[in-house]
Amino acid sequence: MNSKYWGVTAGVVLVLMAALVTGCPPGFVLETVTVTANAQGEGIVVPSGDFVKGITIFAVAIPDAGWEFDHWTGDLTGSSNPAALLLDGDKTITAVFVEQAGEGEGEGEGEGEGEPLPVSEDPGLNVTIQSVTIPGDLKPVVVFKATDDEGVALTKSNLASVRFILNYLETPAAGSTARYISYITRNDSTLGSNPPAGASLIQANTDSAGNNGVTDNGDGTLTYKFATALPAAKYNQSATHCLGGQISRSFDGLTYYANPLFDFRPDGQTVTATRSIVKTEVCNDCHSRLAFHGGGRREIGYCILCHTTQSTDAGSGNTLDMAQMIHKIHRGESLPSVEAGVPYQIIGHGNSVNDYSEVVFPQDVRNCAVCHKEASQADVYLTKPTLEGCGSCHDRTWFGDQAQTPAGYENHPYPQANNAACAGCHPATGNNEALPSLNLVHRTPEQTSAGVGLSFAINSVVANPTDGTVQVSLHIANGDGSPVTDLTKLSRAGVTLAYPASSYQTYVSERFVGSSTVPGTLDSSDAANGNYLYTMAAKVPTDTTQTFAIGAEGRRTSGTAPNTFTESPSENPIAFFTTDGSDPVARRMVVDDSQCFKCHNNTLRLHGGSRVSPQYCLFCHNPMKTAGTGDEAVTVNFDVLVHKLHTGEEMQSPYPWGEEIRFPGDRRNCEMCHLAGTYGLPLPDEAGPTVITREVGPPAVTELVSPATAACTSCHDSEEFVAHAMAQAPGGVDTCIICHSVGQCAGDLAESHQIEP
């Protein structure tokens, strides 16, 4: 349907409905009057008469005018003669019409006329911005549509909260990126106690109209009228503007949120300048789902509309600018300022202290691409380095007058007053160590070294059914595919055997390169092709039909001193075999390794860097594995260990490791790590019981517990929950499925671990 201005006069019937403030019942018709519109977008002339304050437009009928009502904005309150309000400042009465569909357009003639809009009976909240106009009073008008998950339009009464913020994209200074600037700010002095001297108290803010600014249009759309007029001095119709919304809906005891975003130019021209540096989906790889400030702020594109260069934390004096704040939060305990003894804090609502000084980034902080990827401008950290961005991580580097360097700061080699020269000395790519490129210094050692890479592959495994001897053929290569022909260049290489594959209980590790080698046999006759044949010293049982597993590991030291690093394989290869010639049965897959790497990348290099694959970790970290002795022994079964590490500082029972860890996601979102359908009850029959040691009064007792009990109590580790779980699994027999499987009284675990909408 194309909109079109009409230069004709038409009669319009205006039905005025009582607002709630009048005390009239909803739907009560006060008066029907005839008004005249001369042209689309111009004022409606309303006859004089007595009107009740607070009335709102409910519906418009347009007989034979060739127009169709789109939306109305205006204010009829405070006057007994609305005609006098015509084009009068912020009380302009405006109607917007669009050309009606002609023959063959839209639905059939008369179809649906007079029928009420359907009423939502389903959950969900989906919001789209249809238009933003800025009338003569400079108070923006937003037309938007909110629907449930079935596409049924929601009304104003369905929405619990409506907020909008409007920003414009500034023209960047030389060397800088364009930043959004909010039209609306507030003085935040009430949020900070004893702010540092000279600290700014300004923060970007949403418009104050809230729900009072919303009007139902009667056609499934809603109109929002800003209470704030844009400052004329800042208003540039040719600049890119971004409208952001924070809208919520309560339904069936749950709250649904939406953060719609809308880029536009008030002059109607095509938007070309934008800012898209980080994508929400990438953030959610580690954070499950962004949900800040009460849960309603979920899109990074919305966050940057408040976290602008205008915004400062009144309590700490720290900037709230996203480009600086987010870098500082993610570097956390390794910030130079924190290492120097100055905590990094943001004083939030109600003077709550949010201390990020103990945040540990789960991989090498130099890997900027873990966050800066997939967005259209994701590479700006390489192409447009800035004092603000670089100085947020390197926050004890002084870029100013070196005669005024603060105590504890290191001088940048050359004073920099602005960003104009940054990219000239620090280009995106290059290997000049005197003026290092961003690609050189913001990549891990493994990423920057030429020809880096190490890979292990298992060609074949042969088990002798008579004596249990195991021979494994390995191929070892460099990252470019060339063979590793000299094993003395490696600092470690070996294999690990584990069985039974259904639920590992026994493992044997043997090294054929490095310290503590064992008397196995290594055949290097085909080393020129990178092939090696290793015969294990250990032997496997032959009187069994069980499946065995074998995996390989290794590492080497690379780089040039002092910039040496441990080079690890991309994965630990695993092969399954039997001794009786039957087909091997691989261990079930529970964890999606690729999910681990989203947060941990190449830092999942454990025990010296040789062990990189979670499936290989299971060999040693099996249900029978404990660490410590006697009363101090604790399980290091992989599912217990990893659950506890990711529970981190929220653990309620003591565990030797991980109490300082802050998990960035929502632990109810099991599929951050797990494959779908692998964590509910009942667990597979082959899942084995776990050995644990627990205090039962003294002395400590070592016992077997069911796999479900072991897994569940690793996260739900309060004394009460552990006691309940142990009582439901006498002698290691799992009865959890009675209450916690599909359709039972306590609900399916897969369902109960879902996070709220």
Your description of this structure?
- It is a single chain.
- By secondary structure, the chain is α+β, with helices and mostly antiparallel strands.
- The chain has 5 domains: 1-110, no CATH class; 118-320, no CATH class; 321-443, no CATH class; 454-616, Immunoglobulins (Immunoglobulin-like), CATH 2.60.40.10; 629-752, no CATH class.
- It is 14% helix and 26% strand.
- The chain has 16 helices and 34 strands.
- The strands form 11 sheets. Strands 9, 10, 15, 16 and 17 form a 5-stranded antiparallel β-sheet that branches.
- Strand 22 and strand 23 (469-478) form a beta hairpin.
- Helix 3 runs parallel beside helix 6 and helix 12 runs parallel beside helix 13.
- It is globular and about 95 Å long.
- The two termini are 34 Å apart.
- Residues 1-112 have low confidence and may be disordered.
Radius of gyration, taken over Cα atoms and rounded to an integer in Å: 33 Å
Strand content: 25-35%
- Separation, N- and C-terminal Cα atoms: 34 Å
Oligomer: single chain
Count every beta strand, where a strand is a DSSP E run of 2 or more residues.
Answer: 34
> How much helical structure, as a percent, in the residues?
10-25%
Number of helices, where a helix is a run of at least 4 consecutive DSSP H or I residues: 16
Q: How would a crystallographer describe the biggest sheet?
A: 5 strands, antiparallel
Count of separate structural domains: 5
Shape: globular
The average pLDDT value, as a whole number, equals: 83
* Low-confidence segments: 1-112
Derived structural class: alpha+beta
